[in-house]
Each structure stands twice: as structure tokens, then as C-alpha cells.
């Protein structure tokens, strides 16, 4: 395939056994585009990136892409035994090959025209690849993403999950692909790293397509947004940033709710009319004694009119029922805390912490009230996840004490969700975790967090976002007294992230959130606890 300067999908059609994701849509992304992909979990954002990258073949249609198009996967695909040095050298493989060719061409100069031409071509390639700044680019990228302090002999198995993700992103940027395809690139990035990535993408010389749940990043980077919504309108491209998109979607939701309500009223009115028409015109009773002579002719005419009206009304009703817009999905809300516990009955702290985890956390005099709204911030490595782990009782203190009110129930929504039985279905996992009585009162289906096709899939086969939705459903169905959320908006759709934030405002217990999400942080109206510099 001839190389191109843009990404193009033509009549793209793709799906899986249980559903169609894309149905013949076209897409062009030129060298100045920074296209953000948004949509519900499982809508097809990651699939579209794989199709554009050539990592997956569409059912129909074609994709053309620049030579050297590269994809950043959500999950790091480099072997755990790879050292940082090996990862970086792999990213520079093309640059090193161009350097070697330039050295070979220079060594072969003998005054002949052929040698001069070969050297000129090698020099042009070296200039395009900017080979002389490659090592400086490595240092700048590692520093920009906050992983420059990791020794080069360290293996990927020896660093944290966040560091692995940042190293994978660094390697991709260092390789300088002609087109960038990024799946959740800001996950595990702190403010400084996000700002570095924002500046890098703004000046990237080729097309960029990225799927992201980072609403501030979408506002800052995207020149347009592609909303993937198979359930409603398929694929829709919006110009402008995320704020303009929110306004458009809010107006669409209002129109949707209004249309659903109006059609519901019309259905009810038609059903009443169909039932009442015979009674209204008296065709459901015989003639009165003094009207028997005229009843034959007049009654027959009235019956014909009533029958015609009933047929017309029934036809309209049938058409309306068949083509009526679906009901807008429910807005996220938490069930009440189950009765039988008095852990939140009075004022004062329900959790109190003074202690340390060696090399990871040192906290003195932290108290959490019964209706606390606490935001934990700080750079990567400052101990945010460790603090939540201590509060949840998962991580032991090396010194100090964690005291908790008697009967207190604490639950955590982890960054990386793991289910003990990955072959068990989502529905079965939910029912087993919350209990039969609670699952009858608050069913997984009614929560609307998972699409119908995912309810009976093994949890190990769900997408990362769907697994997180299931974990959230477990909390919503049986809310704890203290709800801990570690980067709650990671892997959640934009709409669900916003709904979750709104729902937390009326949560029936205490809420502690650790987050890098600048959109969430800018709108937080509770207490903020900032942990110290990275260790």
C-alpha cells in the first residue's frame, strides 16, 4: 500500500458475533487533526484504534495509513523481562539503522557519482529522522513523563504498573511514528506528565487519534471528537473541544427525554381512545325502544365510522410502539446503606490514622468523619494508593495505628480491578457478592452499568472498563460506610464519570477519592489532602 500523510477509513464495517460496532462509516484524519474518541465502555473505541493501526482486520471496508503508524495499547505488551535500556533501544531501532547506513555510506565515499548519491540519500533520511538529537530526545521524554530516575538495567517486572505504562508511552514517542494512535494515554500520568504529553501532541507532525476519559485533556488537545454510540446514532463527529460537546449532548438528552415523554403520552392517549370509542358512540349497546326504526341505517353508519377511527388509531399506536425512541438510560444513584449498623449514628471520626508504611507513606492525625468528602492529591509515588490501601485494611502499617469505629464497613474501587473467579459471569458475580435479597432489590440489570450482552459473559472476558463498572455496581448495590475510590474516572466512560461525581455528592456515607483527574479536582467542593513529593 502506498504511504499517505493521513489516516482514512472507507465504508468501515466491523463487529463481533453478538453485535455490530461499525456499519459502513467513513473517516479522514489529516496531519493537523487531533481526533479524540469518546463513547461508552465497550462501544468500540479500542477496536477502532486497532482497525486504524492494522492490528485487526475490518469485516468490510478499507483503511489506509502512513507508513510507521504506531498504536499505544491500554495494557503494556512488552515482556516483563525487558529492561528499560532494551525498551529504549528497541524504540530507537529505526534511528540506529539510519545512523548505521549513514556511516556505511560515508565510509564508501570514493568520489563516484553513485557513492555521492547513496550518501546524499542516507543524509536526507538521517535529517528527517533527526538522528543527532535522538539521545537528547530520550532524556527529554523520560524526564517529561517522570520516569527518568529509573535505572536502565531495571526490568519492567520490577516497576509499578503506572511506571510500566509511562515507559511504554515514552518508547512510542521516542520512536517518532508518522501517525499516533493512543488508547488512554493519560492513565497513570500526573499533572506534569500530562502537560508534557499535551505539548508533544500539539506539535506532532502527523495525525493523532486518541481514546481518552480525561475530560480536561480532551478539552486541551482535541481539535474534534468522534462519539461512538452504536445504541443511538452510530458514529458522530463533533467539531471543537469537550466543553462544546457537553453542551451539544445535554441538548440532545433534553430532546430525547422530551420525545420519549411525548410519545409515552400519545401511546397512553391512543390506548384510551381505542378502548373508549365504541362506548363514546354507543355502538357497544343496542338501540333504545324509540330508536329502533332508524337504528339499522344510522347504527351501521356509526359503526363504520367508529371502526375506521379505531383502525386509524390502532395503526398509529402500532407504528408508535414499534418505532418509539428508547427510554433514556437511568442516571447513576447509590442505594441506601443497609440497615442494621450504627457505625454512622453519631458525629466524630469513623477512621483515624497516624502512622507510616516505610518508604511509601507517612501520615499524622488524619481523621475521616461520617459524611466526609475528602480528595487525596499528590504526584505519582506520593502514597495516594497506599493511603487508600491502609484505610481499607489491605496494607499494614510499619508503625503507628489505624483506628476505626466498631461495625464500620469500608470498600474500595481499585484502579486495577481483579476478580477472584474470572470465568464466572458478571450477573453471577454480582448476585454472589451482594446476596440474593439485595440483588433482588437492586439488580445488576436495573443499574444500567453493563450492556445486556455483557451480563452473562465471564468477567475475565469483559473490557477493562466493563470490569470496573461491575466493581462499581457491587458498591452501589450495597454501599459501605466509607467508600474509597482510587482514580475513579480511569477506564470509565465520560458520561459515567460525570454521573459518578454527581452521585458522590449525595453519597450516604463518607467518600475518599484519590485522583489525578483535573476535571474532577477543579470541581471538588470537599476537603483536599495533598501528599508530599514522590519518594
Automatic annotation (TrEMBL):
<feature type="domain" description="ABC transporter">
    <location>
        <begin position="344"/>
        <end position="533"/>
    </location>
</feature>
<keyword id="KW-0067">ATP-binding</keyword>
<dbReference type="InterPro" id="IPR003593">
    <property type="entry name" value="AAA+_ATPase"/>
</dbReference>
<dbReference type="InterPro" id="IPR050611">
    <property type="entry name" value="ABCF"/>
</dbReference>
<protein>
    <submittedName>
        <fullName>ABC-F family ATP-binding cassette domain-containing protein</fullName>
    </submittedName>
</protein>
<dbReference type="InterPro" id="IPR003439">
    <property type="entry name" value="ABC_transporter-like_ATP-bd"/>
</dbReference>
<dbReference type="Pfam" id="PF00005">
    <property type="entry name" value="ABC_tran"/>
</dbReference>
<dbReference type="InterPro" id="IPR027417">
    <property type="entry name" value="P-loop_NTPase"/>
</dbReference>
<keyword id="KW-0547">Nucleotide-binding</keyword>
<feature type="domain" description="ABC transporter">
    <location>
        <begin position="7"/>
        <end position="272"/>
    </location>
</feature>
<keyword id="KW-0677">Repeat</keyword>
<dbReference type="GO" id="GO:0005524">
    <property type="term" value="F:ATP binding"/>
</dbReference>
<dbReference type="InterPro" id="IPR017871">
    <property type="entry name" value="ABC_transporter-like_CS"/>
</dbReference>
Amino acid at each position: 500500500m502506498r504511504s499517505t500523510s493521513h489516516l482514512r477509513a472507507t465504508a468501515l464495517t466491523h463487529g463481533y458475533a453478538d453485535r455490530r460496532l461499525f456499519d459502513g462509516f467513513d473517516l479522514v484524519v489529516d496531519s493537523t487533526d487531533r481526533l479524540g474518541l469518546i463513547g461508552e465502555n465497550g462501544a468500540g473505541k479500542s477496536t477502532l484504534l486497532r482497525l486504524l493501526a492494522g492490528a485487526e482486520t475490518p469485516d468490510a471496508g478499507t483503511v489506509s495509513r502512513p507508513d510507521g503508524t504506531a498504536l499505544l495499547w491500554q495494557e503494556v505488551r512488552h515482556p516483563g523481562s525487558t529492561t528499560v535500556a532494551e525498551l529504549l533501544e528497541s524504540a530507537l531501532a529505526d534511528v540506529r539503522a539510519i545512523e548505521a547506513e549513514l556511516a556505511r555510506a560515508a565510509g564508501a565515499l570514493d568520489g563516484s557519482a553513485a557513492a555521492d548519491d547513496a550518501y546524499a540519500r542516507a543524509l536526507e533520511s538521517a535529517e528527517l529522522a533527526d538522528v543527532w538529537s535522538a539521545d537528547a530526545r530520550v532524556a527529554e521524554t523520560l524526564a517529561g513523563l517522570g520516569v527518568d530516575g529509573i535505572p536502565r538495567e531495571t526490568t519492567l517486572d520490577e516497576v509499578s504498573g503506572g511506571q510500566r505504562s509511562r515507559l511504554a508511552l515514552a518508547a512510542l514517542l521516542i520512536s517518532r511514528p508518522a501517525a499516533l494512535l493512543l488508547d488512554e494515554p493519560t492513565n497513570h500520568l500526573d499533572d506534569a506528565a500530562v502537560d508534557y504529553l499535551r505539548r508533544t501532541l500539539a506539535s506532532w507532525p502527523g495525525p493523532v487519534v486518541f481514546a481518552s476519559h480525561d475530560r480536561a485533556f480532551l478539552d486541551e488537545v482535541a481539535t474534534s471528537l468522534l462519539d461512538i454510540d452504536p445504541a443511538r446514532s452510530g458514529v458522530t463527529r463533533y467539531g471543537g473541544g469537550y466543553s462544546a460537546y457537553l453542551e451539544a449532548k445535554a441538548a440532545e438528552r433534553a430532546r430525547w427525554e422530551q420525545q420519549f415523554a411525548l410519545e409515552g403520552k400519545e401511546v397512553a392517549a391512543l390506548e384510551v381512545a381505542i378502548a373508549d370509542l365504541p362506548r363514546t358512540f354507543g355502538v357497544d349497546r343496542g338501540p333504545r325502544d324509540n330508536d329502533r326504526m332508524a337504528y339499522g341505517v344510522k347504527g351501521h353508519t356509526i359503526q363504520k365510522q367508529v371502526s375506521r377511527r379505531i383502525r386509524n388509531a390502532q395503526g398509529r399506536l402500532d407504528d408508535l410502539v414499534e418505532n418509539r425512541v428508547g427510554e433514556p438510560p437511568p442516571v447513576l444513584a447509590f442505594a441506601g446503606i443497609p440497615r442494621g449498623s450504627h457505625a454512622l449514628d453519631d458525629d466524630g471520626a469513623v477512621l483515624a490514622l497516624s502512622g507510616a508504611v516505610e518508604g511509601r507513606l507517612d501520615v499524622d492525625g488524619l481523621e475521616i468523619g461520617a459524611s466526609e468528602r475528602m480528595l487525596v492529591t499528590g504526584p505519582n509515588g506520593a502514597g495516594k494508593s497506599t493511603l487508600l490501601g491502609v484505610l481499607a485494611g489491605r496494607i499494614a502499617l510499619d508503625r503507628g495505628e489505624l483506628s476505626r469505629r466498631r461495625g464500620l464497613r469500608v470498600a474500595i474501587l481499585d484502579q486495577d480491578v481483579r476478580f477472584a473467579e474470572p470465568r464466572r459471569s458478571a450477573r453471577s458475580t454480582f448476585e454472589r457478592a451482594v446476596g440474593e435479597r439485595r440483588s433482588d432489590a437492586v439488580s445488576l440489570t436495573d443499574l444500567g452499568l453493563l450492556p445486556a450482552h455483557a451480563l452473562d459473559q465471564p468477567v475475565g472476558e469483559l473490557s477493562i472498563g466493563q470490569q470496573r463498572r461491575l466493581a462499581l455496581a457491587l458498591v452501589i448495590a450495597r454501599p459501605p460506610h466509607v467508600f474509597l475510590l482510587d482514580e475513579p474516572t480511569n477506564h470509565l466512560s465520560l458520561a459515567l464519570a460525570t454521573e459518578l461525581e454527581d452521585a458522590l455528592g449525595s453519597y450516604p456515607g463518607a467518600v475518599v477519592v484519590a485522583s489525578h483527574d483535573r476535571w474532577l479536582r477543579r470541581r471538588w467542593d470537599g476537603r483536599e489532602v495533598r501528599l508530599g513529593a514522590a519518594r
